[in-house]
Amino acid sequence: MAKPTLLVLAAGIGSRYGSLKQLDTLGPNGETIIDYSVFDAIRAGFGKVVFIIRHHIESEFRNVFLNRFLDRIEVDYVFQEIENIPSGILIHPERKKPWGTGHAVLMAKEIINEPFAVINADDFYGAEAFQVMADFLQSAVDTNYAMVGYQIENTLSEYGNVSRGVCEIADGYLVRIDERINIARNERDTIAYFDEMGASFTLFPNTVVSMNFWGFTPGFFQQLQNSFDEFIVSNAQTLKSEFYIPTVVNKLLNQGAARVKVLESTADWFGITYREDKENAAATLQKLINRKIYPSQLWE
Asked: Model's pTM, two decimal places?
């Protein structure tokens, strides 16, 4: 069986962070989170990495990453732009945002023909997470998919609220994901979120959440295409509506059209939602280097 592919979602702007955080350096020798993700993927057994980017960052992306990885793993990239939709559909003339993570994955439909994992470019998932996903994908068939789950207490930011996909799980398989916004620790040091009416709901620290680390077979692309075709007909004239991976997964689960195994990981996770998160992220990487999880010079 072919080695699995890693699909990296790197087209986001990072509005809350304030810059193109996918290219921000965090490691001691200028490494980005993407560097650590690709490093972990290579040693876990992935055979190719595909990036989803925007045209306006192509030059910078090529300068930073392409030559760095080419002699270590097969590399390719495709573009996500708002005009990448079925012909004959008119987009709102003021629309600027791409169509979301589900649309981003769909852009790789023509170049991925083997089981693949999907990650965010600005999230650090940990070596163990890549290994358990690679092991799953080596034997993945049909519509048997996977997701790496993390305990919510390990995914919060000290500098603001976050959004997370809160998972309902039964016998090790995903039942549904509910997107919760404005999640943070409150003054009682408990974790809670607020709904649209302003009501507060407490979450247990070990509640499993999705951090957008998915494992799919190539058959997912057609399911994704079918759902996107329905979505875009209703939302082409909106300014902010987005097509998300969890929305499609929930639909497939409800229809009995897929199974999603939850691969729970104790690996270190961190992200850089806010600019202030950068210092903590760099410190966490240094601790992992000190523990010999990573070499100090990642690409020696």
From this structure: 0.92
